[in-house]
Amino acid sequence: MCGRFDLHARPDGVARSIGATAAEPELTSAWGYNITPGRSILTVYAGSSPQEPVLGLGWWGFRPQWAGDDAPAPINARAEKVASSRYFRDSFAHRRCLIPANGWFEWQPTSSGKQPWYVSAADAPLIFYAGLWADSDQAPGRCCAIITEPARGIAETIHPRMPLVLAPEAITAWLDPSLTTRPAIRRSVQRIDPARLTAWPVSSRVNRPSEDDATLIEPVEG
């Protein structure tokens, strides 16, 4: 799963990295070392073309307008079912987005409790999760979810699932609105090579959502 992540890259740096323009005047509220569900996060949408992406905000908790106030608001969507699920299939076909991050946190069961780990790409300071969005009554008017898949590489030693991290060359294809079917998307979109992932144990301070500083991603003895 992906229930906590880090985006300490500033929004203007994220925008420059993929040539995106900003849709909202104020995006710094989506920045942080300890990003939790139930808040606005940075998201990247297709603009007038996939080559002209737009950086905006989305509420992390997927509840489309048609679903109703009592419907669930999942933060993740399983890759295995996302194309067929009634809840996600329309967004998978027509409303895909990128969710930028520097890395994510996962908790590994141990004999003395759960040890938090930080996972990122060893050779890239910024990564992009495959995400979905929908129109929402929740401000800022969009809601989103992060697609997850079975864990690969070093992430598999920590937790059975991980966010679907896109290979850099697949970013434009993921936003391409002309790709609407699962076979077409799978042919054009690649995941990150798991050999590029790295991970280390971090302080249990990250367990508290109120904690938010650079020391949260520093390694500690596991």
TrEMBL record:
Q: What is the E.C. number?
A: 3.4.-.-
One GO molecular-function annotation for this sequence?
lyase activity
Query: Which processes are annotated in GO (biological process)?
Result: protein-DNA covalent cross-linking repair; proteolysis
- DNA damage among the record's keywords? yes
Q: Name one Pfam family in it.
A: SRAP
The answer to keyword Phosphoprotein applying to this record is: no
- SUPFAM superfamilies from the entry? BB1717-like
Instruction: Kindly report, in one word, the top-level EC class recorded for this enzyme.
Output: hydrolase
What sections of the sequence does the record tag as coiled-coil? Answer: none
Q: Which UniProt keywords apply?
A: Covalent protein-DNA linkage, DNA damage, DNA-binding, Hydrolase, Lyase, Protease
Family the entry assigns: Belongs to the SOS response-associated peptidase family.
Q: What is this protein called?
A: Abasic site processing protein
- Give the source species: Spiribacter curvatus
Mind giving the lineage of the organism this protein is from? Bacteria, Pseudomonadati, Pseudomonadota, Gammaproteobacteria, Chromatiales
